[in-house]
Amino acid sequence: MKADEIDDSFVPARAREVAAAEVEGETVIYHKLSETIHVLNPSATVVWGTLDGQQEVRTVALRLAQAYGVDEQEMVGQVTGIIREFGRQGLLEGVVADQDVVREIRLDLLRSVEVGGEVADE
Amino acid sequence: MTPVRRVDAVTPPALSSCEGSAESLLPADLVPGIDESTPWAYRTKRFRILSFDFALRTTDGDLGRYIDEAFDASAVNGEPTAWYSVIAWLEGRYSHQVFIGRSRLMSASWPSVVPRVLTWDVNRRAIDTGQASHLLLHAGAVARAGRGLLLPGAMEAGKTTLVAGLLRAGFYYLTDEAAAIDPESSRVEPFAKPLSLDCGSWPLFPDAKPQLIDRAVGYANEQWQVSPNSFRPCAVSSSVPVKYVVFPRYVAGAKTALRPVEATDALIRLLAQTFGFREQADRNVTALGRLVERTKQYELTVGDLARACEVLTELVESGDGEDAQAALRCFR
């Protein structure tokens, strides 16, 4: 399945190849196969926390709409968009990652600044 | 705001301190091995770093005494599991043959390579065997007032120099290379290898010069292997909870300054400094998440060593509460 085909009847589950930790409301995810790192902002972290492989996107969205007092249709649209983004980045079981997105991530990784920047021995 | 973003690379950290010429690391085919008739002049004490324990025997007593002094902070009683053997002053191309057990570890063309490679190999084996039980970070670590301070950084980040400065400022030693963290409790345990001080740092720490160096000068003309106890007696800390993670960044001539780092950025930086990260990715990500949740994280631009040590002393002595902000204000 492609990420763009995800709709509100989809039942999302986290990919088995990921390891994740939540810190201060954000989530850092390491993908073991692509060796990419993904950071979820607080909204995406909330959605990520609901992915149990049992609930439809719509069910999750309606619960969140109720919890946060947000319009239901608006929340369904937002949650569907976030879950599609998870899918594009290879974070969902059974959803084919968008290779252009993954390639872009890997290219960015190659360009990324090394920890410490201009480090020199004292 | 993009809900999902990518950030940084996962490049496994590399161990410091195993330089020397490629030639010196080539195996020699035509030199004798070790046997019962080898005239050992010196046997060191037994040492243990995490779960790796070893001792060294050598035909050169000066080398043996130098290693004994350098590793004295990790000396333990009993018989070693692993023996390093060094045959010195061979005829011809190689000056030293180094073995572990009966396997040749290296053939050295000149003496100074020997302690460096020994220390590197001990680190490597201690890290390899310690990964099952510990989260191992490429980081210096010190303690003060029962609070652990991690200094993660890549090779050549100046970790050893900063750790040495902090020891001199009254901190206790845990490691200058590999911080061993309990994945559940986030306590850091001693990995008490000698500090490997490059010659560029020697003028900063003349008192740390190994006592036996004048007799064994050939073994230390590029790098000193320095016992933490040479800074003061009983300088090694026991296990302590990590309270602070500070990423040092040496910039010549820069103003020394401490600034907070966001938790997710800290986690990602730590992830890139985790030995064997991929092999136990699930455990390591979880353990790093716990570590970040339990600590405060900063980046320290180091322009002046003495000032950097003052900043870190103020930070750690300020405790866990809001007083930490005072340290930031003082040195901003």
Short description, anyone?
The complex is a heterodimer of chains A (122) and B (332). Helix content of chain A is 40%, strand content 14%. With 122 residues, chain A is an alpha+beta fold.
Description of the structure:
The complex is a heterodimer of chains A (122) and B (332). Chain A has 122 residues and is of the alpha+beta class. Chain A is built from four helices and three strands. Chain A has a three-stranded antiparallel sheet. In chain A, helix 2 packs across helix 3. The termini of chain A are far apart. Chain B is of the alpha+beta class. Helices cover 26% and strands 28% of the residues of chain B. In chain B, a hairpin with a 7-residue loop joins strand 6 and strand 7. Classes of the chains: A alpha+beta (122), B alpha+beta (332). Chains A and B meet through strand 1, strand 2, strand 3, helix 1 and helix 3 of A and strand 1, strand 16, helix 5 and helix 6 of B.
Measure the end-to-end span of chain B: 30 Å
Shape of chain A: globular
Q: How many helix segments of chain A?
A: 4
Count of extended strands of chain B: 18
Low-pLDDT runs of 5+ residues of chain A are 109-122
- What is the subunit organization of this protein? heterodimer
Could you describe the largest sheet of chain B, including whether it forms a barrel? 7 strands, mixed
- Radius of gyration of chain B (CA) equals 20 Å
Topology:
The complex is a heterodimer of chains A (122) and B (332).
Chain A: E1 18-23, E2 26-31, E3 36-40, H1 42-48, H2 57-68, H3 72-88, H4 99-111
Antiparallel strand pairs in A: 1-2, 2-3
Helix pairs in contact in A: 2-3
Chain B: E1 4-6, H1 22-25, E2 42-43, E3 46-49, E4 52-58, H2 61-70, E5 75-76, E6 82-88, E7 96-100, E8 103-108, H3 113-130, E9 135-144, E10 147-152, H4 159-168, E11 172-175, E12 178-181, E13 187-189, E14 195-198, E15 223-226, E16 240-250, E17 257-260, H5 263-271, H6 281-294, E18 296-302, H7 305-317, H8 324-331
Parallel strand pairs in B: 4-6, 10-16, 16-18
Antiparallel strand pairs in B: 2-4, 3-4, 3-5, 6-7, 7-8, 9-10, 9-11, 9-12, 12-13, 13-16, 14-15, 17-18
Helix pairs in contact in B: 4-7, 5-6, 7-8
